[in-house]
Amino acid sequence: MHRRQKPSALEHKRDPAAHGRALSMSHNDTRSFFNFSQLVLSAGHLKAPPVLKHSKITYFEVEILDVQSKKQICIVDKVPPSSTLLDVKHKFHKACPQWYPSRVGLQLERNGPYLKDSINIQSLAVSSIITLYFTDLGQQVGWTTFFLTEYTGPLLIYLLFYIRLSTIYDQVESTKNFRHPVVHLACFCHCLHYIRHLLETLFVHKFSGGHTPLKNMIKGCAFYWGFTSWIAYYINHPRYTPPSFGHRQVSFAALAFLMCEAGNHFINVALAHQNHSGSKACFPSPTYNPFTWLFLLVSCPNYTYEVGSWISFAVMTQTLPVGIFAFLMVIQMSLWAQKKHKLYLKRFYPEVRRKAAMIPVIF
Question: pLDDT, tens digit, for every residue of 27-72?
Fold first, then answer.
């Protein structure tokens, strides 16, 4: 039989120390677990990390070809669907610095119309690659520069003839002949007309940053400046004769001229207010101002007043150059009025269908 050995005295001394360490470690573990539990409870519910949604954006590639040779000029890549054609033109300008945006004309087809800068690029897309044809529109000028140049010339040219420079008229004949009052009145009316145009260009008309070819400005300046020289030469000539019916004819024509100038100004102000008021688009309606009542009869009363001004000026001065200029203005204004009237018919048919374009019944 085996005898059970009794623990020695040394083992009896070690056991309490080991037991104390075991109790101490168990107490520390319990305390750590308690602290961790309190931390979790204070933090609230555990939330799963958010799931990242990767949105797929389809970018377009715009291939730009020369309209004449069909050769590729460049490819504008990574074009977002929200981009406009103007954004594409800016990127095209970065690739080809010699063509700035206002000089670039882009077409969807070779014989098609030029696309507007505001058009969205996604509306042109059939696939991820969009092909556009490029045309160099030539050197461009802003509309404000265009009109300021076109109207400043006649104002200054007429005044040069009015003061009767010795290089234009015979000095001896100029000092002998008396100037009829209609000569001074004609200078006042002519200057008033172009000063009104200049002020309206600066403060009334709002141009949306558009451009026009430089050659158009040259043609417009040649027309207005050339006719002004011809008109001013006749009216301010020392041998100029007053109108046949004298003071009555001059007074009636001058009054009609001033009324047409006032009407033209009020119509332009009404059109500018209607286009930029921010309200729903609608055809301009007459107001309490009597000069705007012409909207009841015609769709383009500003052209009606413009033609009336030049016809009145022709009657007041009774000169052939003014009569020819007034006749050409009637033709030009009627063409512009008919073009704008067609646009009005598409947008405001019920309101415009019974109106004439410029002159009631005739046009």
Answer: 555 555 555 555 555 555 555 555 545 456 688 999 999 999 999 9
CB 322: neighbour CB atoms within 10 A? 23
* Residues whose CB falls within 8 Å of the CB of residue 75, separated by 6 or more in sequence, listed in order: 61, 62, 63, 64
Asked if 273 contacts 292 with a C-beta cutoff of 8 angstroms, the reply is: no
| DSSP 8-state assignment for residue 261 | H
DSSP annotation of 319 reads -
AA letter at 78: K
Alpha-carbon Rg for the chain in angstroms: 41
Let me know if 3 is exposed, middle or buried by CB neighbors in 10 A (0-12, 13-18, 19+).
Answer: exposed
What pLDDT sits at residue 319? Answer: 96
Q: What is the tens place of the pLDDT at every residue in 119-132?
A: 999 899 888 899 99
Q: Taking a C-beta distance cutoff of 8 angstroms, is the pair 87, 130 a contact?
A: no
| DSSP letter for each residue of 80-135 | -TT-BHHHHHHHHHHHSTTS-GGGEEEESSTTSPBPPTTSBGGGG-SSSEEEEEEE
Which amino acid, 180?
A: H
Beta bridge partners of 298: 356
pTM of the model: 0.78
Neighbours of 154 (CB within 10 A): 23
Please tell me the number of Cα atoms within 13 Å of 347 on its side-chain side: 11
Q: Return d(Cα 137, Cα 140) in angstroms, integer.
A: 8
Q: Under a CB-based contact definition with an 8 Å cutoff, are residues 293 and 286 in contact?
A: yes
Q: How far apart are CA 154 and CA 359, in angstroms?
A: 27
